[in-house]
Amino acid sequence: MRALMLASVASMLDQFNRENIALLERLGYQVDIACNFEEGNTSSEEQVMAFRKQMEEEGVETVQIPIPRNISAVGKIVKSYQMVKKLVEENQYDIVHCHSPIGGVITRLASRKQRKKGMKVIYTAHGFHFFTGAPKKNWIIFYTIEKILSRYTDVLITICHEDYERAKRKKLGRKIVYSPGIGIDVDSIKNLALKEDKRAELGLSSKDKIILSIGELNANKNHEVILRAIGSLKRTDVHYAICGKGELDQHLQKVAKEVGMEGRLHLLGFRTDAKEWLKTADIFAFPSFREGLPVSLMEAMAAGLPIVCSKIRGNVDLIQHKKGGYMGAPNNMAYFAKAIEQLLLKPELGKRMGAFNQDAIKAFDKAQVEKVVHQVYDWDV
Which CATH code fits 186-363? Predict the structure, then answer.
């Protein structure tokens, strides 16, 4: 038996699909992976190269496909479609499991002929671009595309309740499945021992407070609202650290200077030790405009942190307001400032919220997710 795992970029497979690859191998499949190893990755070039090398050493064949992350890159999309179509027809896969909006579109279109021969096509939606409150153009473009592709989707896996309910109502696949995210190892994060003093790396003392975010430095992640919220507190002992890279690094530094946070904004770049930073922080902030079911938020819960986040799809599946943290509108800087101040003034409250989160996140452990995905791979559709 042979299976293909495909995503737009390698970092998606590295960060979110290692467990799926391992599960397919345990079920007896020869696994190939296809993605863009060269461009668009959210992890470092070194990490991407290390991931590819490790996969190949474990017997997984890797294929470079120039899938873009921008829908306007028509030439690369056409070329990627041709390459994926050739790949699936030559290798006669039993299962193709695809991820990412553009990667999912390309794969399902390219697999039409092979589906007629019995190949099963699975698509995991990591957060539809059409959601409650989304711009009208998102519904016109992305919903229409997904509805058309539903006829070529044997199993659609959704990872948050809003997407699951909508996919069922709109019949966006032959079989619609809910999975509690992509799964995290709750116990390993909860019991993680620090390898080094992260505060010393930033020149901070034990008295300094660290608000931590994890995510790309882009407009959707909305780090600026937390930066301005912290600046408004006028406290010199509060620092904002962000694990992630992206095009807004210079902009965020400019804002930091503007709001009196210069020297207290720490852009850490892509980090392989992000979980250790979770164990170092006092509060986790996650103010995104759009998410599916965010892994970094799940990991912050497992680390026992109180949460300050946006009240949006996905986040509401994870956080119980005033029990595990505080949730507000993404643009409500004043609310985030008040929530952060409350947690800084009442450390015992933060500890109680962190303990609540560690208990709540058990339902999203990787063992629970594996049960769902195992059944998907075994289903006769």
Answer: 3.40.50.2000
